[in-house]
Amino acid sequence: MSIEWKGVMPAVTTKFTNDDTLDLNMFEVNIKAQLEAGVHGIVLGGTLGEASTLTNEEKSILTQKTVDIVKSKVPVLINIAEQTTKAAIEAAQKAEKDGARGLMMLPPMRYKADGRETVEYFKAVANNTSLPIMVYNNPVDYGIEVTLSMFDELLKCGNIEAVKESTRDISNVTRIKNNFGDRLKIMTGVDTLALESLLMGADGWIAGLVCAFPKETVAIYELQKAGRIKEALEIYRWFLPLLELDINAKLVQNIKLAEVATGIGTENVRAPRLPLIGDERSHVEQVIESGLKNRPALPDYKSLQLVH
Description:
The chain is an alpha/beta fold and about 300 residues long. It has helices at about 25-35, 55-70, 85-95, 115-125, 140, 150-155, 170-180, 195-200, 215-225, 230-245, 250-260, 280-295, and strands at about 5-10, 40-45, 75-80, 100-105, 135, 160-165, 185-190, 205. This is Dihydrodipicolinate synthase.
């Protein structure tokens, strides 16, 4: 079982009702908007998906629901963010039963594992599932960096295939290419560095603001891939103030507000998160309002796929 690691894969938000249960109806509305825009995969249960607040049963329901909605058009991945190796293996095996086609995987949560422990953690999961794995490398937010020497060891596992590159160091894309060629696919994971990373050779983009602006996000990817860099850059420059809502501690609330503005979400979050208020809310609303007011006309970016 393998995945084509390319294109735009939204790290989707989890939709909640006013009663704090899964809002599967609005969830489906958003997933269908992503598919209509031409995304290349769906990633569930990441930071944006409020993974730390979801029960195992809810993760299972979301996986099965998404698999049902996409009907094999694109792969469905779920994030593994666990405190123990045992729990991570169980989560991977449950995801496989639920129909997921791949895993995004963080290093161990809470305990700051050293390099040896982190490698063994990833390998133990890889050796106990047939699903392809994308290692989420985000030392800025999670405190553990997966280094090139660690990837040397990890790539002995055939199903560790990709990295979500979120180190914030653009030159890391080139280092990975120089060291591993196409053996380790690169999905850029920082919205505000996305186009730069793609132009340096990243294969795809695990995106955040795509949750509210799917067409613009896919258009940037397709245009740069087709060599129409100037057009991609114009959209990206318009997009940047919105993309900056993703590199913020309140990214979930920010992006859910944007989803409300584009009609494909609600702002319900799960406590301890609370909806934005006051000046913080006003600022985010102004950024979104300005973005909508100046929203660019998009070329027929889907037809560009024919020339790849």
